[in-house]
Each structure stands twice: as structure tokens, then as C-alpha cells.
Amino acid sequence: GHEDFRPRIVPYYRDPNKPYKKVLRTRYIQTELGFHERLFVAVLTSKATLNTLAVAVNKTVAHHFPRLLYFTGLRSAKVPHGMVLVAHGDERPIWLMYETMHYIHQHFGSDYDWFYIMQDDTYAQAEQVKALVTHLSINQDVYLGRAEEFIGGDEQARYCHGGFGYLISRSLLLKLHPHLDSCRNEILSVRPDEWLGRCIIDFLGITCVSQLQGQHYHTYELAKNTEPEKEEEEDFQAAFAVHPVSDMTLMYRLHKHFSRIQLDRAYQEIQDLQMQIRNLTSLTPAGETGLTWPVGINAPFLPKSRFEVISWDYFTEQYLFSCPDGSPKCELSGASKADVSEIIESALEQLNSRYQPLLRFSKRQLLNGYRRFDPTRGMEYTLDLLLEAVTQKGHRHVLAKRVSLVRPLSKVEIIPMPYVTEATRVQLVLPLTVQDLDFVANFLDMFAMNTLDTHDNALLTLLFIYHPYDAQRVSQVDVFAGVKAMVGELEKRYAEVKIPWISVKTEVPSQVKLMDIVSKKHPVDTLFFLASVWTEINMEFLNRCRMNTISNWQVFFPVHFQEFNPALVYRGEQTASSSTDFLRDGHFDRHSFAEACFYNSDYMTARTKLAADILERDEVLESMEVFDVFLHYSGLHLFRAVEPGLVQKYALRSCNPRLSEELYHRCVLSNLEGLASRSHLAMALFEQEQANST
């Protein structure tokens, strides 16, 4: 039973007489390999303390444990927010313990290695408990806690006191489960923890221990009217669990005290590591010159060319001079203002801690502020502060001081995201106006080559936008007759494909109004890709559209790559045909929001909120895009990222002056920035001046 696990290679063999059957793999590799989660925590509570002590446990330590559930006999009419509660329907303590152990085995016995059971009047140091289970072997039957003697029982046998929490291994839980019914019928006890301990001893012969494999389970019993802030005993400082906690306030005070202890330990550990780094730096090839500031933080990023230089953003206490919308100056507000205030406060705190009691500094004014985000280390700040220094004798002096600060990148967290697949059908929606007719043929050719020929799970719907004048003459001259003929040819070539179209008459083709029409004609679970006529559809992008769009969670607005005007870039020379240079002569058009991937259900939900906000004022829709609808009227994540798989050839877009001023301005900017790069424009002007001078 004490032998180490040894891997064994199982040779693959398939019976040639049996038909081949595709093997279904698990979604996650840890499931296939049989890995378990580390720790499950059960908190025993009651109807009387559910809204008091249980809430205090939930607010203090619950978020530090990977999985925590609350178990009670009877529940209140309203369960506190953010708590997962299991009610067994009976307040008898022994029954509650029996049902809890049975529930844990049934629902979590095969998923976790360790089970920690505590009461709601217990304060547990979550980080200490999590560190404890990482040092214990999972192949032993463990019953670890504060060992207590049975009243009038065997002197050698011990049970784990429930008030201080106890740890049970998965192997012990699996062995104990078949005997729970017998324990319920045969063992009489008033205390649930004593009942469980007697059950484990009688049927498994395992007693509670406070020390195992070199690890000690430290506990501390609180006296009445205890002041946590004044407790200096070593047992209290090292305790994994503290009991009894009489009220919510005491729970919060304990959490504050132990959090301060952990913070001081972390700061001391950082100082020790920095000292070790300083001592070892002299032994490195670079010597002491290789020591970076702050010690232990990655060195600043060193650009290899001027294009990799990370620019600094200038700010004062009132204004920011590098604004998200591109304007040269904007008011400092929100998170940015809080960030600047915190940095100035931290700078003063560090200065005073270094120079007190000889000098005490107070801020007069922030003269200059600079900040930049270095992806290798974090946010860097440089502050020019006008300070007033006061000596011990009361003399005052005003001086300017430059300080540098770093807010380092902390532990990286993986954000949980719903599971999506690449098998979802994508419904392409292509709005067309008369100005787009010259580009439709190329769009349809690319769609046929990259989706129809490859049998990709994608469909296309065309949206013909008629001007009122053209709509009146449609029986004589249909401006979209050529497009309809192309669609007919495609449907003949691909017999299983149908490309429907919708005709709309309007002078102002509002993206939201057009989407309203399309949305009503498709099921709610449809995944839309709102395309433009210059888009070249390919399988790579469609897969990213599927993966980046999550129903009731996230919508995707890709930033396409816009090629520059070849007449300005190449000026009659041969265009670059290398596949590695396809993103060279162009730019990502951040002014365009025409392409979007989203689910119909998400759009309908956001559109309903928009309708309730604007009431009958439909003219507001002319100044909005689908992006604005999701931004202001949905709680979804808006994922906006550059998309190298979405490349558009150069074309001069026609900007409708009937649209809102902002949309028209964005369209004009997109056209101007899409002409060429600064170097190409400068060369064109230079050649033009040379030609004029001769």
C-alpha cells in the first residue's frame, strides 16, 4: 500500500474481425488521465445562522477555496446571494452529518482528492489549508484535525473536533460510504463530529490525528471577549482554524487580522528574496550592473528598432494627453483618475517611510506625470512632484522631486469561458447598395471557392437596398438584376445551395434597421456574420468567428486588414505576390465596425432594451450601428481584435451624408487612412514636386 505509482504502457490492439468504431475523446485531458480537483469544502450551518455566520464565512474565505458548499437541515425563504446551499429537510445534527457525507460521496466523491468539513462558527485560514493538502500524499486514508478523546471511551481512540474543521481523504470517504447506514442505525451520539469519528473508528479502524507526514494541523480556541488584534501567542498566529466565532463582526476582525499576518509574511519573503538576488548578482557574468530595478521584477523591454519603442502617456492631476478616442486632451476620470491618485499617494508614502523622522513630505502639486504599459513587467510611472518638506524642528522647504514607480504584473488568472465548437453554422448577411455592384462578383467568387467548394457549414443571405427612385422603376429596370443573375448561376452550379435575398427600400441604410429585418426571418439560435462587399470570406476566419462568439456571453467585432491604394504604394511597379507579405502594404482599419459576429438571441435581447429606451424615436437608429446596440444595451463581452484572416482589397467607400455626423466622419477617416502609409504618401508628393519642377 506504500509503493509509489509506476506508469504502465498499455499496448493498443484492435480486433480485425470487428468493425472500426471512432473513439470518442474526453473534452479535457485531465478527465481522460483521471486527474482530480484538489480540495472540496463543506460548511455545516443552520437556519438560525445562515444569514449571519454563514454569510460571514462566504465573504471572508469562500472565494479562496476552489469549491465550497453550505449544508443545512432547513433553509430560509431567501438564500443569501452567492451561496450554494444544500438543504436536507431535517435539523437533527446526526442526520445532517449523515446526509452531508452521503451527498458529498454521491456528487463529488469521484472529482476531488480532499474534503474539508467545517462549521459556520469556524474561521479557517484558506491559504494554509490549501497549502496543507499539497504536502499530503493522496494514497493514504487520512482523518486529520484536532484530536479529542471520547467521553468514557477508549483512551487510544480519537475523533476530530468539528468546531476546528477536519480533513478527510478521498480514499477514506470511499471506504466509509458503505458503512454510513450502519453507523446511523447503530451508533448513538449527541455530537455529529463524535458520531462520525466513532463510525470511522468502528468500521475502518482509523483514528483522528493532529500530525501526519510531517504536517501539523494547528488550531486555536478563542476565549470569551477575545481581541484578535491583541493576540500575540504563537499558537494563534500559526492556527489553521479558530473556534468558536460568536458573531459576524468577530469573523471579519479575525479575517482582517490574519490577512495582515499573511501580507506581512509576503512582504518579508519578498525582502528576503530581493536580498538573495542582490547577493547572487555579483556572481553572474553581468555583475552588479545586471541588477534591475525593482529587484526581482523583469527588466524593461529593450526595443530592437524604433518601431518597437513603447511610448509614454503624459498626464496631470486633471487631464490625460493620450485619449482612447484619439483626441489630444481629455479629462482624467474613472479608473485612470483612481490610478493616478493611488500612485501619487503611494509615492508620498514611500518617501515618508524612507526619510522619516528627519523629513516629512506633503504634496503641493503634480508637475508632470508619465506612464506606459510594458508587457514584460507591468505599468511604469514617472512623476515630477512639487513637495513641501518639513524637518524635525519645523523648518519648511519646497522642492521638486522625480520618482519612478512600477505596478508589476501579478499572478495570471485564467478567465473561465463557456465551451464552443467549430461546427456551428454561420449565416452570412451581405447588405448591398447600388455603389457596391462593382465588387459583388469578386465577393461571390470568393464565397463559392472558400465555403461552397470546401462544404463549409455557412449560408449566405443578400440584402438589396433600393433607393426610393430605383424601387419605383424596378419593374422596368432592376439595378440588382445582374447580381440576381449571378446568384442564379451559383444555385445552378451547386444544386444543394439556396441563396435567398431580401429587398429593402430606404434612403438611409441604417445598419440597425437592416438587421431588424434580417433578425425576424431567422431562428433565435442563428450565428450571424454581418459582412461587407469588400470582405474576402475564408474558412480560417469563419472558424474564428465561431470560436470567438459565445451565446449569452460574448460578441465578436473583428478589425479587418485594409490594403492600401496600389496606385500610390507601387506606382506602376509589380505588386508583392509573396504569401508572407500579404499583410505588408496596408493597415488594420480601426474606424470600421461593419463586420460583426453575434447570435440572433443576443441581438434580440439587446434590441428589446434599446426599443424600451428610445420609445418611438426611430430617427435615433440612423445614428447607431450594431456595435452601439451591444455596447450600450447588453451585458455581454464585446471582443474587438485585429483579424489577419479578414483582408479587404482597396476600394474608395461611398460615405452617405444622410448618416449621423459620427458615422460619416468615421467613414471619411477610413477612406483617408486607407490611401497609403505616410512614407508612401511622402514619396508620391516628392515625385509630384519633382515632376512639376521639371
TrEMBL record:
It is found in: Golgi apparatus, Golgi stack membrane. The lineage of its organism: Eukaryota, Metazoa, Chordata, Craniata, Vertebrata. It comes from the Eukaryota. Its main location: Golgi. Keywords: Glycoprotein, Golgi apparatus, Membrane, Signal-anchor, Transferase, Transmembrane, Transmembrane helix. Pfam families: CHGN (PF05679). GO terms for molecular function: glucuronosyl-N-acetylgalactosaminyl-proteoglycan 4-beta-N-acetylgalactosaminyltransferase activity; N-acetylgalactosaminyl-proteoglycan 3-beta-glucuronosyltransferase activity. One of its GO terms (cellular component) is Golgi cisterna membrane. Its EC number is 2.4.1.-. Belongs to the chondroitin N-acetylgalactosaminyltransferase family. It is a single-pass type II membrane protein. This is Hexosyltransferase. It comes from Aptenodytes forsteri. It is an enzyme of class 2 (transferase).
